[in-house]
Design a protein that fits this description.
The chain is mostly helical. Helix content is 58%, strand content 8%.
Length: 119
């Protein structure tokens, strides 16, 4: 590590502490910057830099876990449904309720439908 890299990491660490102090203080950014003597532009600049560094670090960790995913993409795990739903058909005619599933005998269902039509 050369001196520039060390200095950059030191500044990042200092601004990380500054931004955490602002969050813990509960003050708005405008109030905090005025009380700390910090330019709002500098605050937002370093906040953006820290977010970018966090995103790059996050992507690096993901790529190490599985070398198959290119930068900028996230690999989703395959999920299986926890419950299997069975399609049912419910019919109500003149107060009579009929529920049919895929296992219902078609001949029986046809006879019931004919009987209901005759009502």
């Amino acid at each position: 590590m050369n001196t520039r890299e060390v200095a950059a990491e030191y500044r990042m660490a200092q601004w990380t502490q500054t931004i955490q102090a602002r969050v813990q203080s509960g003050q708005s950014i405008k109030e905090f910057c005025a009380s700390a003597g910090i330019s709002r532009n500098a605050y937002f600049y370093w906040q953006r830099k820290l977010r970018e560094a966090a995103c790059i670090g996050h992507m690096t960790v993901q790529n190490r876990e599985n070398g198959l995913v290119p930068n900028g993409w996230t690999q989703l795990s395959e999920t299986t449904p926890s419950t299997v739903t069975v399609g049912t058909l419910t019919v109500e005619v003149s107060g009579c309720h009929i529920t049919a599933t895929a296992e219902t005998d078609l001949e029986l269902l046809a006879k019931v439908c004919r009987a209901l039509r005759s009502l």
